[in-house]
Amino acid sequence: MIQPWDIKKIFIDNSLNKDHNPIIQNILKNTQNTSIKIEFIDNPKEIFDYYLKHGSLFEKDTLLVYRHQGKFISSCPGSDGMVCCQYFVINFGIGCLYDCHYCYLQNFMNQPLMTVFGNLEDLFSEIEKKIKGKNFHFRIGTGEYTDSLALDPIIEISPILVNYFAQLENATLELKTKSNHIEKLLNLNHNNHTVVAWSLNPPEIIDKIEPGTASLKERLEAAKRVQEAGYKLAFHFDPMIYHDNWEKNYKELLDQLFATIDTNRIAWISLGTFRYSIGQKEIMQKRFLDDNLTKQEMVQGSDKKFRYFKTIRQEMYATIKSYIDKKDPKLFSYLCMETQYMWEKIYQFVPQSSKNLDSYFENRRIYMESLSKS
Ligand code: SF4
Prior knowledge:
Layout: E1 9-13, H1 22-30, E2 37-41, H2 44-54, E3 62-66, E4 73-75, E5 87-90, E6 93-94, E7 114-117, H3 120-131, E8 138-141, H4 152-155, H5 157-166, E9 171-177, E10 194-199, H6 203-209, H7 216-228, E11 232-240, H8 246-260, E12 266-273, E13 275-276, H9 280-287, E14 298-300, E15 306-308, H10 310-327, E16 333-335, H11 340-347, H12 354-373
Parallel strand pairs: 1-2, 1-3, 3-7, 5-8, 8-9, 9-10, 10-11, 11-12, 12-16
Antiparallel strand pairs: 4-5, 6-7, 13-15, 14-15
Helix pairs in contact: 8-10
Bound molecules: iron/sulfur cluster (SF4).
């Protein structure tokens, strides 16, 4: 597994108030006695420019902590013509330590620097503006442009976020990871406002195409410890990969999950199959010569993304969904970035709007709250 201690260098923007900035203080504390070099810099743009010209694109060994000038929150980008839920994303950085072969960041990043936004006070004031006084329970996730916990042993951002969300009345934070870095989460007063989520795949898929991430065993062990610490959990079967023995492998994966985790503690399960946008296939083919991922015939959807043929997707979703329902019919699962046609086939209904789909999340949240009170 790739560890944050494998990072070689961390640049820190002098414009952040070093003595009062929790992320910088955490980095200085956690990199003592490691070989990671720290350099304070005046001009982050120079660093970006240097790495844009000289960096080797997939060498993920340098981190820049700087003052982000743009927006921190966005709606989940969803996809044209696909059914979406009302999910919001906060970005505390861009770039990931891991190197999943299907990762869309390959097609999105133009320089190899991993970044963390150090001005969290701006993130928090943006969240407050967004949610304050609204009669709506927000689900807000990290982990769109990075793994939520991959760098946590060094930057310790999870306690900062969990403590902050614990005080908010109408928001749940989702931390989404393929790591097992949960140590910093274990003794927090999270107030049931954080869901810790893992993306899962069968071990042979993790070994082949999710290099650097925690093994399935490590992920499930971490999930169990987080459950014991009282957190709600979520699991993302996304991207599911069509391969020989997929049915047997995903069923075994579900058996392992349900043998480890109490289904009453699972807030949601998402299902999505492998997809890629224009330009990504060529990058993957160049980088991963032995992969079968891009050899499968795919079809382009209304959002221009390529997916497996709908007969394959339908069979995969129906199989996994019925297996989940057999285990616990009350479990809430949903399709991520899928068509109305697929919703109709798998769930026998189509959410009429993102608001409509959101009510299912809300019902599950209320149900879980009632369990914790009884
Ligand atoms: S963990 Fe997520 S963000 Fe990181 S490489 Fe894998 S898919 Fe990309």
